[in-house]
Amino acid sequence: MKVMIEKEAENFLEKEGFNVVKRKVVKNKNELEKAISFVGSPIAMKISSKKIVHKARVKGVIVNIHGLKAAEKAFNKLKKIKDFEEVLIQKMIMGQFLIIGLKKTPEFGLAIMVGAGGGNVERMHDVSFRICPINEKDADEMLKEIRFYKRLKQKHVNFNAIKKNLLKISNLSKKYPSIEELDINPLIVNEKEAIIVDARIVM
Q1: Residue 181 phi, psi (nearest 5)
Q2: What are phi and psi of 196, to 5 degrees?
Q3: Which candidate, 164, 165, 155, 202, places its Cα nearest to that of 186?
Q4: Which of 81, 83, 107, 132 is the most exposed place for a label (fewest CB within 10 A)?
């Protein structure tokens, strides 16, 4: 079994044609200024380590950071976390949070899911499932089945971009049958685009 942590999973998905947030990995404070200049401000900073699966549980995510001094302070805080290896810097994206992914089932093979995302996903449990592969009609029905759909409509998000991501995820299930799990949380959606901000893959 191979677990792709966030930076590996995001690189993999970007190579497969997905829209992934602009990002840069840094190992020390001397690299911060160049990384911020590349990514743009404001930024989010996340701990990156093969030994840390759930970054939020170790307080390994700091968001809405403006400027080099604030970034240095955040870096020092993240560096104190056990099993620290490096920091992933990302451009902050505004929008609505969705979760999409794949899960291998013993009965039916890979199932695809979509739902309300973010840090409260387990508590909200607002998700819809289908067995892969799916078509555009399936993707549309899945979105309409979640309670979060009403808010998405109110915010006039780009539904076509969400559906394209669902269909591309479904296609991955055919191209890479060795996938056991794939989690994108969040996929941030706004009026213009849907963009992957965090991902994890188990092969």
Answers
A1: -145, 145
A2: -75, 130
A3: 165
A4: 107
Q: Where are the domains of the chain?
A: 22-91, 96-202
Q: Could you tell me which CATH number the domain at 96-202 has?
A: 3.30.470.20
CB atoms closer than 10 angstroms to residue 51: 9
Phi, psi of 121 (to 5 degrees): -60, -40
- Residue-wise pLDDT for 152-172, tens only, equals 999 999 999 999 999 999 999
Phi first, then psi: give them for residue 200, nearest 5 degrees.
Answer: -150, 135
Grouping H, G, I as helix, E, B as strand and the rest as coil, residue 96 is: strand
What is the C-alpha separation between 160 and 131, in angstroms, rounded? 20
Q: What pLDDT digit, counting tens, does each position of 103-134 carry?
A: 999 999 999 999 999 877 777 789 999 999 99
Rounded Cα distance between 167 and 181, Å, is 16
Peptide bond connecting 106 to the previous residue in cis, omega within 30 degrees of 0: no
Q: Tell the CATH topology of 22-91.
A: Dna Ligase; domain 1 (3.30.1490)
